[in-house]
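help with this record:
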Amino acid sequence: MPLSPTLPMHRRGAIRAGLGIFAAFAIGTPMAAAQWMPRSFAPLVRHVLPAVVNIAVTEKAGSNGDIASLLPPELRGTPFAQQFLRRFGREGEVRAAASGFIIDPSGVIVTNNHVVSGASRILVSLSDRRTLPARVIGTDALTDIAVLKVDAGGKLPFVRFGDSSSVQVGDWVLACGNPFGLGGTVTAGIVSAEGRNIDEGPYDRFLQIDAPLNPGSSGGPLFDLDGGVIGMNTAIVAPNGGSVGIGFAIPSNALAPIVAELRASGAIRRGWLGVSIESLPDDSGRDAGVLVTGLSSGGPAERSGIRPGDVLLAVNGIAVPSPLDLIRTVAGLPPGNRATVTLNRNGARMALAVTIGERPADAPE
């Protein structure tokens, strides 16, 4: 039976009733504030887990042939080290375990780009214990998103994206995945923070969660209590090789558009100005914006008349107070379209028309 992220009201009620949700009221306040907690996640798990898959990736190892050197750093010194070497260590190959989830009954799977990057073979294990080869439909390194496809000979259970903009700090979430290669595993926690930047890339706006994630959880889905995928588990803070209660998930509202474009074209085309930029000093006294320190030769900015020393203030009326704001705003513009860039040049405010270019794969911004 296909799984749905935004369930009909009677199905939502059934799941929430099954979760045994109850209210606990604050004592000693003028108006009692209800705090909701699930008594059991079992009905939700039964509903969504069939769409969660395990991913096994084989990569070519280095030429040194030292199998012990292939051990992932996060497993060194843990009880899983010997198990990894027994199961996955073979001359000339490295094998890794990760997670993913099915978003279409035809067998379309979403996972992290870092899971499949450099893979020579990808195998997907389904909840019915079948293992199928997968092919890559498209990947995007900048957002760490990949879309795969398996041919199962029939319809598969699937989930759809929920609305991450409705998520609040403190909301309960359920994380599913394949930690340490152990297979379908679920953990629960809350959203700890929103919009986290962990300096992994220019598009960092992670949900931070305290649901335990571990190596192998990458690419697994993060569910709200209605069964909607509101994130994809992507990174952890793991000073000791395991969960310390700080994990990060790509929000679904950032994930879904990238997945849709990868399914349609296999790659992401992003807008590009061709400028080197840096933040303004706090005491610069100029309007909030970003300072142009250099131009790509023949790039869109140079052709439009933008100069080093200009302070870029807005793009199409959207303020860009920081370098990340500029990068994200321009990246969202279709290459080939014209945009209006508002800037400050030597104290004079002006606007220039720029034809947006397509971001090269090796562009610094």
